[in-house]
Specification:
heterodimer; A: mainly beta; seven-stranded mixed sheet; 11 strands; about 0% helix; B: mainly beta; about 55% strand
Chain lengths: ~110, ~110
């Protein structure tokens, strides 16, 4: 029974397209996150939501828009995809957003832009 | 500016011996440090954490040591097992501001040889 699940696992698309990645957690956690792992394997936070409210918004192009319909779901929509958006995107959740709380990660969505 | 650094990209250890993975950080405001393990095509899995008020935390075969004055932490795995072969990420977070924002190192690939 997967705790944090992301769909799709792989996404291959053309430059300029719009795409969405979905994330769901069944852990009953309050806080969810999106991370990007680039080609150098560097994992960097993009967004965080706590109880459907945006609490972390890193310096990310506004082509990226997260949406949290409820606290179990955090989706990521990307407009006008660019070559540099190719990466692995990880969703994560934690019980609360207190510092030091372990975050539970999904298995990632590998996005490839042609 | 990378605030969390793992200077060894890879480490090879014999089964049964001790594995020592190192991590350095620059931000003295970090209060919590976490270690994650990652297998290929999977998300990072939380292993063990330590608060800045402690200098050691142990969980089974895994022990994390923190040296605040040197801004250095290490993860010891003993005895090492072939199933421990994975990429290990060090991460840090600070109380206050955007709480539970994890800053990750670039990872160390551990290979445990049978």
């Amino acid at each position: 029974d997967t705790a944090v699940s992301q769909t799709p696992k792989y996404l291959v698309t053309q430059m300029g397209n719009d795409k969405s990645i979905k994330c769901e957690q069944n852990l009953g956690h309050d806080t969810m996150y999106w991370y990007k792992q680039d080609s150098k394997k560097f994992l960097k936070i993009m967004f965080s939501y706590n109880n459907k409210e945006l609490i972390i918004n890193e310096t990310v192009p506004n082509r990226f828009s997260p949406k949290s319909p409820d606290k179990a779901h955090l989706n990521l929509h990307i407009n006008s995809l660019e070559l540099g958006d190719s990466a692995v995107y990880f969703c994560a959740s934690s019980q609360v957003f207190t510092a030091g709380q372990p975050q539970h990660f999904g298995d990632g969505t590998r996005l490839s832009i042609l | 500016d990378q605030q969390v650094k793992q200077n060894s990209p890879s480490l090879s250890v014999q089964e049964g011996r001790i594995s020592i993975l190192n991590c350095d950080y620059t931000n003295s405001m970090f209060d919590y440090f976490l270690w994650y393990k990652k297998y290929p095509a999977e998300g990072p899995t939380f292993l063990i954490s330590i608060s800045s008020i402690k200098d050691k935390n142990e969980d089974g075969r895994f022990t994390v040591f923190l040296n605040k004055s040197a801004k250095h932490l290490s993860l010891h795995i003993v005895p090492s097992q072939p199933g421990d072969s994975a990429v290990y990420f060090c991460a840090a977070s600070a109380e206050g501001g955007a709480t539970n924002k994890l800053i990750f190192g670039t990872g160390t690939l551990l290979a445990v040889q049978p």
